[in-house]
Amino acid sequence: MAAHLVRRCCWRHFGAFISPVSAVPVSVLVPAGKLAVARALPPAPLASFHTSSPSSWADGFSVKELAEDSRSQEYKVIGELIETATSPQELLQLAELRPLTSNQASLIITQLSRLAAEKKLETESIVLDKRFQQLVSIMDSQISQVWNNTLVSLLKSLYYLGMDRNSTEMQSVEQEVLWRLRRFTFKHLAFLAEFLVVRQGKESQLLNEIIKKLELRWTELESTRTVVMLMSRVGHISPALMDRLEDKALELAEQFNPDDVRKITLALAYQNRRCVPLLRAMSYHLIQKHSELSLNVLMDLIFAYGKLNFHQPQVFQKIATNLQPHIPTMTPVEVTRCIRSFALLKWLSLPLLEAIAQYTLDNANQLSVTHLCSIILSFARLNFQPSGSEDFFSMVHEALQSQLHSLDPHLLTDLVWSLCVLQQAKAPYLQQVLAPDFHTQIRGDQSLKAQNLQLKLIHINAAAKLESPGYRGPFLPPEMLSVAEPAGEKVTLLQSSLREALVGVLGSQDNGRFDARTIYGWQIDAEMVVNSENKPLPVKNFAAPHLLCPEGTKPLPSGARRIAFLRWEFPNFSNRSKDLLGRFVMARRHIQAAGFLVVDVPHYEFLDLKAERQRTAYLKDKLSKALAKEMAS
Question: How far apart are CA 326 and CA 240, in angstroms?
């Protein structure tokens, strides 16, 4: 009602300005071939038009002053009519009643675009209307007089209405925008960049020029909203601009709300930009200022942190705690996305994982095979066994065993490998991937993906031999048990320090074997043999069925034992934990099942010892304790 009254009042005032030109022939006001009556204004507004003369407005003003005041009021009234119009017809009618300036024509075009978007109108009929074409002609004839704000909106409106990009008028508008870039505000430039990156893409000359201006004027940026928009929608086109946006975001980090943080971290993740100072700053303020986070924010944050491999334990704990109540109401896609992100970050949150295990049991009918595989793979990476593991894995086996033939070979291999980690791989799973017709398809393939697949098959083969007493085959052939060594693998500090300290334990180089590659797909950092009196023996003299290339032939003396030293680096553990990840738990189990007495050398104990004599004493003590424990058992 208020808008209607404003519009009615504007039409009343507008009548005062068009009445003096009523003496002009109708043919001037109405396009040729049209009847004047056909383009009359709505009856209600026109009924109250008045014809007061300018001399009656005020006494004592010069003719020039009165004319300027009249033009100012007229421009204001036309602007209000444009803003309050509720249909395209009202806007197009304005073009017939009074000669318009190029800026007014541009405003009408912009408003037409807004109405078409709001009311979901067909734009083709608007563009083909002769009155619209008249507006475009007026705009194009004096394009240099269109105001900056209007020009920026005009370009977007013409694109929305479906104007041909190759038309003269469109090229004229784009060229005018290009010429005026230096006069535009930073906000104008950002608005244009956001729009053009969608409409024209990174090959646009206009967009490239705008980005250059943004790179030069980035210090003018003060709005958090603009920073977020540019980083998420434009930054991927220009690494130089993204560098400056990251610096500005670091300045404004305290002002970001959770949704801003979500959008920025996603932008960094999609562009694979691991800006640690910015991530740390946003994480700090997120913890300090925002106690409750929405589900979308929680999901996107954990995904982005996982993709960037950015570890922030306080944030992980907060996300896990906030996510747990949402688990029962989440969709299968959200649950699998959540658990995969936590697994990627190696974050072991027992309450959250228990909630996901219960969700899996409660919603087994809604979970697809792919969803179920994702949950199993994530549990295996974290070496998580649900408290109700018997019920959980009964449901898993029931759902999966009939679907094994339909799975992609790589996914099937990952699934069976994960079940081996969790010690849940039954004979049908093992037979499916160890069958000759399954692994022949990767034989001879030297790609990294094929090598990773082969290595996992070797681990599965080891689990079948060492941990499945009832399994009778098939097994991998001997020629499949060797995988090419990874190229360019660096020697770690723990690895070199362990070799140096072991010299004092072995007594002689002949008493040890280093970096032994086994037929089980695992590498033993150091191997030794001790007799019944716990004295080292020359290891190369004895048969070693666990090696790919055995050296000795003698059987072990009575009472002798094989010792394996296994180093555990920082990445082998769950985040901020002393619990090994599932892969390394399985490695330890297999080596132990192969007849070795395992001596664990974790980084957090060994590297804290600075002197070599301390490290040698540490290894001797660990060895003595392992032997004593084995004898006691």
Answer: 40
How far is residue 437 CA from its own chain's centroid?
A: 38
Residue 494's pLDDT is: 95
Distance, CA of 539 to chain centre: 51
Alpha helices in 238-349 (DSSP H): 239-251, 258-270, 276-289, 295-308, 313-323, 332-344
Q: Tell me how far apart the alpha carbons of residues 258 and 120 are, in angstroms, rounded to a whole number.
A: 32
Answer for the pair 115, 121: CB distance below 8 angstroms, yes or no.
yes
Is 429 in contact with 419 (CB distance < 8 Å)?
yes
Between the alpha carbon of residue 458 and those of residues 132, 425, 451, 464, the distances in Å are 72, 14, 11, 10
d(Cα 306, Cα 302) in Å, to the nearest integer?
Answer: 6
Query: Distance between CA atoms of 338 and 340, rounded to whole angstroms?
Result: 6
Residues of the chain predicted below pLDDT 50: 1, 5-6, 11, 13-70
For the chain, the helix, strand and coil percentages under 3-state DSSP, each to the nearest 5: 65, 5, 30
Residue 270, CA atoms < 13 Å, CB-side half-sphere: 15
Three-class secondary structure of residue 530 per DSSP: strand
CA distances (Å), origin 488, targets 62, 485, 491, 513? 89, 9, 9, 22
**Using one digit for the tens of pLDDT, what is the confidence trace for 26-56?**
333 334 333 333 334 444 343 333 333 343 3
Unique residue bearing structure tokens 């996305």: 337
Residue from 393, 465, 464 nearest 432 by CA: 464
- Note whether 404 and 435 are within 8 A (CB): no
| Listed residue (194, 193, 217, 215) closest to 206, CA to CA | 193
Tallying the residues shown for the chain, one arrives at: 633
| Measured distance CA(430)–CA(315) in Å, rounded | 39
Q: Which amino acid is at 512?
A: G
Cβ neighbors of 557 (< 8 A, separation 6 or more) are 531, 532, 537
> Taking a C-beta distance cutoff of 8 angstroms, is the pair 381, 584 a contact?
no
pLDDT in tens, 368-414: 999 999 999 999 999 999 998 899 999 999 999 888 888 999 999 99
Q: Is-cis flag, bond preceding 474, omega within 30?
A: yes
Count of CB atoms situated within 10 Å of the CB of 507: 12
**Token pair listed for 417:** 């490998």
Kindly give, in sequence order, each residue whose CB lies less than 8 Å from that of residue 539, ignoring residues fewer than 6 positions away: 510, 511, 512, 513, 527, 528, 529, 552
* One-letter amino acid for residue 420 of the chain: C
Nearest by Cα to 393 from 425, 427, 366, 371: 425
Tokens read off for 293: 């986070």
CB 579 within 8 A of CB 573: yes
Hey, what are 213's tokens?
Answer: 């201006």
Spatial separation of the C-alpha atoms in residues 420 and 487, rounded to whole Å: 27
Rg of the chain over all Cα atoms, to the nearest angstrom: 38
Please, are residues 218 and 248 in contact by the beta-carbon 8 Å criterion? yes
